[in-house]
Design goal:
Layout lengths: L2 H13 L4 H4 L2 H6 L3 H12 L3 H8 L3 H14 L2
Helix pairs in contact: 1-6, 4-5
Length: 76
């Protein structure tokens, strides 16, 4: 599990605010083409307990790699 990423993503998910420069990152857009990652994100979004789904997603390599890309894009 990626503890720093988990904390940031929880805050990020709960605030529903994605910086524009992160959304415009080609690495992030390319990562979002992965069907497994898409399913994980949809599961989080549709879940009645999104924090639990986020915890599960953080245990997967594809989601941890994705969170690292987001962190790289939003760090000043």
């Amino acid at each position: 599990m990626c503890s720093q990423q988990e904390t940031i993503l929880r805050t990020f998910y709960l605030s529903s605010a994605m910086p524009v420069h992160a959304a415009s990152s080609s690495e992030i857009r390319d990562a979002l083409k992965d069907e497994h990652l898409q399913k994980l994100i949809c599961d989080i979004d549709k879940s009645p307990d999104p924090i639990n789904e986020l915890d599960k997603a953080m245990g997967t390599d594809v989601f941890c790699i994705f969170t690292n890309k987001i962190l790289s894009a939003i760090k000043p």
